[in-house]
Amino acid sequence: QEAEKIRIKITSLGLIESRITADETIQQLFVECRLNNFLAEETPLSLPKPAGGQRIHYCYSTVINVDKAHNRAEREYLKSILLKPDLPADSLKFTVVSDPPEDEQDLECEDIGFAYVSLKEIFQKQRDIIEQDIDVFDSQDASAVIGKLTVTVEALQALQSVHEECRKD
């Protein structure tokens, strides 16, 4: 049932010239997606960092279940997004992560950028986000855009279902 799911698709990532494209220790990238503190899904592959102006294609999709029976906490979180207009954490967070090369496994994975999709905005506009470029902000300078992540977030039906439930409660 669609009302019990949030579908997320990470299509591609493009970088613009920045400290990231210049940093030779950053070679492989993967993307993690998180709903509040719950779920971290990540692209199964880390791909070679694209040159400025080019894109790497993940074509990865996942589903976050928000049904009452098995995922009550996630559903309650969605309710809080709709009921508390000032809740700061109302977004899906995408993290672009640098994956150390095979021969340098002593290096740590490093978060290099963040992108966000507001679930509250999807509900307010009554429109899912389909194949849309969102800004990726530098993890060391939140005002600097380092690239674009193309994503799809289909959450409207789940949010409408949760909203309907709130009205009944």
From TrEMBL:
<dbReference type="InterPro" id="IPR041091">
    <property type="entry name" value="RPGRIP1_C"/>
</dbReference>
<feature type="domain" description="RPGRIP1 C-terminal">
    <location>
        <begin position="3"/>
        <end position="165"/>
    </location>
</feature>
<dbReference type="InterPro" id="IPR031139">
    <property type="entry name" value="RPGRIP1_fam"/>
</dbReference>
<protein>
    <submittedName>
        <fullName>FTM protein</fullName>
    </submittedName>
</protein>
<dbReference type="Pfam" id="PF18111">
    <property type="entry name" value="RPGR1_C"/>
</dbReference>
<dbReference type="GO" id="GO:0046548">
    <property type="term" value="P:retinal rod cell development"/>
</dbReference>
<dbReference type="GO" id="GO:1905515">
    <property type="term" value="P:non-motile cilium assembly"/>
</dbReference>
<dbReference type="GO" id="GO:0032391">
    <property type="term" value="C:photoreceptor connecting cilium"/>
</dbReference>
<dbReference type="InterPro" id="IPR035892">
    <property type="entry name" value="C2_domain_sf"/>
</dbReference>
<dbReference type="GO" id="GO:0031870">
    <property type="term" value="F:thromboxane A2 receptor binding"/>
</dbReference>
